[in-house]
């Protein structure tokens, strides 16, 4: 990768969340000869763990795999609170000097590719007003998958009439006092499952109001196998950390495979497990009897059963139904029931936004992501020298981010060694003619369905298939074919 004139960096990483920090580490490790910077639109690193401030925010997967593979998670808890995750990220970045490469308050508005100069120009709003142009050979999009500025607002009839407090978890009011108040959480996803046990500690009552139910499983902070591994390896800390990490990679992988291949049996297993944890006052049907099979939508986890403990305490409750209207002091359901909250929390999900909502130009022409196919789950058709990070829906996000980082670093190394200035995914004419589309994501969740028109496409064959699972993607990143479907263009 010979540097062109006025090149600011070899690589620009957009986003200083967990994906961006991880890629920076891999770049330093695998391609130390390349210069890079991280452009972050907000005031600090952390992404989700910096943005969200609602009570009890925590991971929805284990930290042994959600954490960085190059800095093992050492806390006792498997599912961690948001502030602890943010602290871990900041310490990890500082440990390897990554924090010194981040430019905060640098929001990338659009990016322009020039075939003539073989460079990207990132047009940046710096510190709210100043306009900057940063040129690089390669860009990596580590922008997450949702809109930081605009949450998903589900239609709740009459919500504007409510005289109490309405809060959305994405922008939680710092001064919200829910002590001894009746709280209704509208939603059934991971955020609602997280909020209920925390709010129930101070509120008079907390009720989850859901249109349709979810699977909620308990995950112990440390199970018997964890303790057995420790007892066998206490004398060798790196070995213990490696075995624990692989345990949390392999067991969830096996569970999800069983769910995909034996959905009815696993549905019964999940249902029986949930039934065993419910108090007599809460019925599994309809409140915990989803219409879909496990992992057709995301499965929610709660550490050490805290969600079920809140239900057993009597302060947490469930209601399944459809809102007819919200009045100034109540929520009326189509079933005739009424709820009388003081506070309504609209935990209705996230608005999907691919690649941070950036606008791309290729040689002056607008680039449409939704019209493009994905190469190996990493690059977009006809978009040169650009990769994106999109994690898994049935495993920790960081696993997918790291597989992507390793693949891109391998490509960068080969580009440099072969004098290649541009790589761009291209479908063959035969592929264009015969390509059969398949969903980018296996989920049937509402927020994914709503985002269908803004997500790129994936095909049923070749290099255009959606990514599969971590072990296969890791092998692909290290040893797989990175020639087919890519055009490699040498420098001038």
TrEMBL record:
<dbReference type="Pfam" id="PF00743">
    <property type="entry name" value="FMO-like"/>
</dbReference>
<keyword id="KW-0274">FAD</keyword>
<keyword id="KW-0560">Oxidoreductase</keyword>
<dbReference type="GO" id="GO:0050660">
    <property type="term" value="F:flavin adenine dinucleotide binding"/>
</dbReference>
<dbReference type="GO" id="GO:0004499">
    <property type="term" value="F:N,N-dimethylaniline monooxygenase activity"/>
</dbReference>
<dbReference type="InterPro" id="IPR036188">
    <property type="entry name" value="FAD/NAD-bd_sf"/>
</dbReference>
<dbReference type="InterPro" id="IPR020946">
    <property type="entry name" value="Flavin_mOase-like"/>
</dbReference>
<dbReference type="InterPro" id="IPR051820">
    <property type="entry name" value="FAD-binding_MO"/>
</dbReference>
<keyword id="KW-0503">Monooxygenase</keyword>
<dbReference type="GO" id="GO:0050661">
    <property type="term" value="F:NADP binding"/>
</dbReference>
<keyword id="KW-0285">Flavoprotein</keyword>
<keyword id="KW-0521">NADP</keyword>
<protein>
    <recommendedName>
        <fullName>FAD/NAD(P)-binding domain-containing protein</fullName>
    </recommendedName>
</protein>
